[in-house]
Amino acid sequence: MQYIKTELISSKTHATFDAFAAKIMEHQLVELLNPAQGMTFDDLTARVLNDWREHGLITAPICGQYNAMDVARACVGFVLKYRGFNLCAIKSVLKAMDAPMYRDISMLQFAVLACRGENLPTAGTPLLVIDGDNRVGVCLAWDLPAIVGDDDVRTYSHTVLNMGRILNDEMVPKKVIHFGVEDFLELPRKIARRLCQSGIKKVNIEPAKNRIYTETDGGEDPLFGERVIKYQNGRIVSEVVKETEVLRD
Questions:
Q1: pLDDT tens digits for 24-76?
Q2: Could you give the CA distance from residue 38 to residue 65 in angstroms, rounded to a whole number?
Q3: Contact, 66 vs 36, CB < 8 A?
Q4: Contact, 88 vs 96, CB < 8 A?
Q5: What top-level branch of life does the organism fall under (predicted)?
Q6: What percent of the chain has pLDDT over 90?
Q7: What is the mean pLDDT of residues 172-182?
Q8: What is the distance, to the nearest Å, from the Cα of residue 70 to the centroid of all Cα atoms in its chain?
Q9: Quick one: which of 171, 166, 147, 167 has its CA closest to 157?
Q10: Is 121 helix (H, G, I), strand (E, B) or coil?
Q11: How many CB atoms are closer than 10 A to CB 170?
């Protein structure tokens, strides 16, 4: 596993992290593997999490609930995906963060515990640094000039994530709703949007004809298509919207 050069991280940072790591108790680590309490996901977010589970980014939920580490992995992943990382790159970053940072503490576990309840002062909020080769490291703000300015690192640029903001932002799992589910799935936007839209009954994709055919229970009037309404005893018993649209403009 490759990491950003540790010699670029200051002794002051090492001392800060070492002092905190020494206080981490075994029960705190166990708590991270228990189902996350009070964490619920809307249908679209759940679909993304299921897709990411199939890609091996997170584990299967226990009794319908993800644990604290899976929530943290999803939070980091959501930010990286929206910044343009593909799922393979995200998986590589998360795998690196699962490696031990201390004897029994992974990089991600350390970051989660350090960011809980402001365990570290603001200046001690860990930053995740990812270079152009997806090598990772955890540091503090004063380490950045040395890390991102290192002439020996062959990289296009660095991605820096404020782990305090990411892990303590309750709205992060809901970014799927804000940005749209298609930003978090590796599918063409139109296909992802149609597969996850409300009331979907059928989706046919015909690349040769460059068309998507969809059927939904109700919905808005289609630009190209039809609305089929069925009656029984004078009452509407079903209403299906059939729509055709161009797959690639």
A1: 888 888 888 887 776 777 777 888 888 888 888 888 887 778 888 888 998 89
A2: 9
A3: yes
A4: no
A5: Bacteria
A6: 22
A7: 72
A8: 10
A9: 147
A10: coil
A11: 9
Tens-place pLDDT, residues 119-159: 666 667 899 999 888 889 999 999 988 888 766 656 667 88
How far apart, in Å, are the Cα atoms of 121 and each of 19, 37, 95, 124, 213? 13, 25, 27, 5, 54
Determine what percent of the chain falls in helix, strand and coil, rounding each to the nearest 5: 45, 20, 35
CB atoms under 10 Å from CB of 74, counted, come to 25
The residue with tokens 């936007």 is 189
**Local structure of residue 99 (DSSP, 8 states):** S
Please tell me the distance from the alpha carbon of residue 19 to that of residue 186, in angstroms, as a whole number: 41
130 sits in which H/E element = strand 127-130
- Whose tokens are 């998360």? That residue is 94
Cβ(57)–Cβ(94) below 8 Å:
yes
Phi, psi of 160 (to 5 degrees): -120, 125
CA 91 – CA 99 distance, rounded (Å): 13
The mean per-residue pLDDT over the stretch 161-170 comes to: 83
